[in-house]
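User: I'm writing a tutorial on reading structure tokens. Could you give me a worked example: one chain, its sequence, then its tokens, then a sentence or two explaining what the tokens reveal?
Assistant: Sure. Here is the example chain.
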Amino acid sequence: MTDAKLRPATDIIRQAKHLVAFTGAGISAESGIPTFRGENGLWNQYDPRILELSYFRQHAEEIWPLLKDLFYNVISGAEPNPAHYTLAEWEKQGLLKSIITQNIDNLHQRAGNRHVIEYHGNTRDAVCLSCGEKTALTEEILAGNPPVCPVCGGILKPDFVFFGEPIPAEAAAKALEESAVADVYLIIGTSGVIYPASLLPYEAKKAGAKIMEINPEPSEYTGKITDIFLQGKAGEILPVLQQNL
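And here are its predicted structure tokens:
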């Protein structure tokens, strides 16, 4: 990464009044959590139907072991990486106001961030398909196949967004609000193809934000709305920006 790009990027971050980060699977891939798409993506190994709500309702007993293998076992063994820790430090310094994440792995919170909008939900909780009660997924509850609601005995579904489900209303509203008030919008590790999350950076741009992007490869945003593109891994670039600050 050349100084010609790092210097203006550092200046923009330093002068930001309301810096918002928008993160995708790429930032967690550096912690060993596989992405869904791409050459080694999960959808090359698993049928995407397992995350269709209607299919899950009919085949929960068959799907839960796959979900445990896909998400819970992998996520439980993953640790935040330098990119996560840099964002947490920026929040601590008062520089970063919020993170809008498409990820469900809790790594931002484990790194120390508190102002995290989980656009697609999380793996910490589950919701009962019968009574709607939300339950923390303890090891004891996860041991069931399928895990069942401690209130009514109904089947639990992970509290993240499946295909066919809407974005949680509170997260959608907060994400839109933060995108509209940001003066600097930092896109990290996302291709920009997952709707409706993909629309948020455009809302930030429309409201006048400077768009900075960190991605290993150009995304849907790069040639359209990105003002500064820093090509590479977030775990390498963000700590350098922190040093320059």
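What the tokens reveal: Strands lie at 19-23, 96-101, 116-118, 121-128, 134-136, 156-160, 184-188, 210-215, 228-231. The radius of gyration is 18 Å.
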